[in-house]
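pls design
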């Protein structure tokens, strides 16, 4: 999709006035995008990097209300709560095979690990405006790409699952290297998930239940929405086959809400069945010693926040009262 043509003000200060023409006539004003209006209203704070924004009090109030609402919806799940910093150990990340599937999205933390001499070279290169980044080395941490990633190796180390399997409640800032001027495609964003580990029947029943809960949530938030089969953005030519297979097996569904200017609706929640992928790379076993299957219901907290702002307006006083009440009386 081409939203670049809508906006001259990519990641900038927000003003999108037409430039004066050489003949002295004002050029027609450039259409303002949703991103422009969020920045103008001070709701998102541009940093100069596409997809990395600061957030205002209003934005955070909506995001926190959304997270609390999802906690309420999942209160019956007896989920074990786990909160990790937004990093995953690099060895677990390597085992997960993320780099096979999505190398284009990965974020590996690098640091300077050299001696005085190498430090001198680093600073000299910086001062000369030369490339200095080859002076860094990968550390033992990567940025978490989806909130559920740190969970599987941790649970595998605990031994077999109990007979009823497990539900885990996770929340994390996630990183994906996909800079974009669509405000909904951020490089760092928050994801809340309920993760299910157990038998195939348990995972499929869990996923269906969360699809229905997700649809009810969107109804309650009074936003238009549709559910659709989806695939993850597997890299390369080989990735196309994997994505087609994911669709054929109906492993991923997304709940879509219109958010961006002139673009198809945006995936704000996803409902995933990973089959036995994570028990192939880690020894995750059911109580019977079978390979555990896994699935997750993922809520994009930032996308849901933007979906509400898009559909109900940037001024909270104009929002439906019921929606404000649901989000904790914002
Ligand atoms: P996924 O693992 O791709 O299904 O992502 C789960 C949810 O995270 C999506 O449904 C979105 O709501 C959210 N999400 C994914 N990528 C981004 C992004 N680049 N920026 C903001 N939210 C995202
Ligand atoms: Zn997940």
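designed seq:
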């Amino acid at each position: 999709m081409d939203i670049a043509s809508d906006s001259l003000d990519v990641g900038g200060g927000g003003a999108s006035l037409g430039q004066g023409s050489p003949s002295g006539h004002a050029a027609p004003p450039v259409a303002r995008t949703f991103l422009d209006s969020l920045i103008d209203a001070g709701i998102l704070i541009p940093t100069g990097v596409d997809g990395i924004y600061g957030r205002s009090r209003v934005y955070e109030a909506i995001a926190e209300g959304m997270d609390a609402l999802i906690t309420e919806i999942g209160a019956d799940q007896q989920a074990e709560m786990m909160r990790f910093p937004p990093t995953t150990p690099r060895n677990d990340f390597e085992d997960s095979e993320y780099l096979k599937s999505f190398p284009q999205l990965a974020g590996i933390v690098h640091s300077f690990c050299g001696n005085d001499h190498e430090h001198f070279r680093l600073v000299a290169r910086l001062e000369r405006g030369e490339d200095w980044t080859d002076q860094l080395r990968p550390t033992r941490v990567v940025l978490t790409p989806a909130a559920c990633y740190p969970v599987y190796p941790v649970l595998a180390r605990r031994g077999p699952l109990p007979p009823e399997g497990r539900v885990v409640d996770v929340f994390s800032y996630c990183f994906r290297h996909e800079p974009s001027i669509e405000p909904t495609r951020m490089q760092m964003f928050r994801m809340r998930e309920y993760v299910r580990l157990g038998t195939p029947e348990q995972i499929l029943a869990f996923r269906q239940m969360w699809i229905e809960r997700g649809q009810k949530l969107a109804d309650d938030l009074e936003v238009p929405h549709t559910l659709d089969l989806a695939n993850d953005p597997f890299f390369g030519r080989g990735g196309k086959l994997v994505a087609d297979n994911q669709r054929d097996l109906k492993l991923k569904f997304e709940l879509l809400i219109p958010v961006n200017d002139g673009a198809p609706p945006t995936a704000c929640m996803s409902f995933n069945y990973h089959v036995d992928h994570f028990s192939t790379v880690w020894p995750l076993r059911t109580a019977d010693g079978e390979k555990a299957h896994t699935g997750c219901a993922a809520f994009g907290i930032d996308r849901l926040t933007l979906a509400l702002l898009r559909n109900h307006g940037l001024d909270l006083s104009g929002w439906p009262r019921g929606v404000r009440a649901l989000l904790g009386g914002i």
